[in-house]
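Re: Re: ligand-bound prediction request (bumping)

Still looking for help on this. To restate: I need the protein modeled with uridine-5'-diphosphate bound, output as structure tokens. Inputs repeated here so nobody has to scroll up.
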Amino acid sequence: MTRPAYKRILLKLSGEVLMGEGGLAIDPAVTARVAGEIADAKAQGFELCIVVGGGNIFRGLAAAAKGFERATADYMGMLATVMNALAVQNALEQIGIDTRVQSAIPMASVCEPFIRRRAERHLEKGRVVIFAAGVGSPFFTTDSGAALRAAEMKCDALFKGTSVDGVYNADPKKVPGAVRYDRVSYSTVLADDLKVMDASAIALCRDSNIPIVVFNIREQGNLAKVLAGEGVATVVHSQES
Ligand code: UDP
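Reply:
Sorry for the wait, this slipped through. Here it is.
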């Protein structure tokens, strides 16, 4: 499959992407492998923004279901994303990739606060910018954070790295014969409640006309492939074809 060439992209990594087999929330070897994939993508000449989730450490909704007050639990989840951002930064720096972490919740001793124009300058200088703490408010997810940053930073596309190879018409792990889309419209995703990202993230991408490319990041070398317009992925777009 060939896809349009993009210059600036936002890569959304779920927290679970950093987890290893042994149950470590942040597995150094796995994180190093992900960093290697990002370095390969960088070498292709893309300007790269990254948003990391926190689900490998703490999810607000799950904690709220067990009795936590929701807003507090969500703030804890956002702090988890900062830990993941630092882990990704560390792994990237170890292989010589210049990075900055910007957090939606200011924490001056740890990383920069989110400042759009400053992030812009980092990208111009060839740095990878990692955005942490989602949108900085409870009751949101890092998918919404990814869509928001992609829109603000004028990214050409949002690449969502998951553990499946695209968007299916039903859960492929539960429904035998579920069919994978090559392309699917934002409206179908919303109307059929397809599990891509949460509805507010999809709507934001639709309103800013940012295509969402869903692909399997666990497959070695796949990020570079899908960025080059090859490999298996689903593109969520404004028109179906
Ligand atoms: N979170 C939040 N606001 C945001 C982003 C994240 O409250 O803007 C909290 C929320 O509790 C969420 C947790 O941080 O469950 C971890 O983020 P997410 O579930 O999106 O991580 P992922 O599933 O991508 O690993």
